Amino acid sequence: MEELTGKVREKFGLEVKDMADAWKLVEWLEEREWVVYIITAKNRKQVDAWHPRYGTLFAQFGEVPNFGSIFEGILTVALLAKELEEKGTI
């Protein structure tokens, strides 16, 4: 998790320590017209995002984005979306 939070710090200039911090990334995604899908249930922690220009990060490839935690999923999705926007590809 430390590596993931370090990448967020580097790419977003944001120190993420808890869900309140992670939610700032969800708001960042929303501001850029990303629709964020969060599904949580016992043994199921899914986070994905869809954008009218890019499609979904995972579902379009038939993947089920299951993470160890919603926190991890939000950080991962935000990083992937940022990379996609910067480079035009994941």
Automatic annotation (TrEMBL):
Instruction: Give the top-rank taxon of the lineage listed in the UniProt record for this protein.
Output: Archaea
Q: What protein name does the entry list?
A: Uncharacterized protein
Protein species of origin: Thermococcus nautili
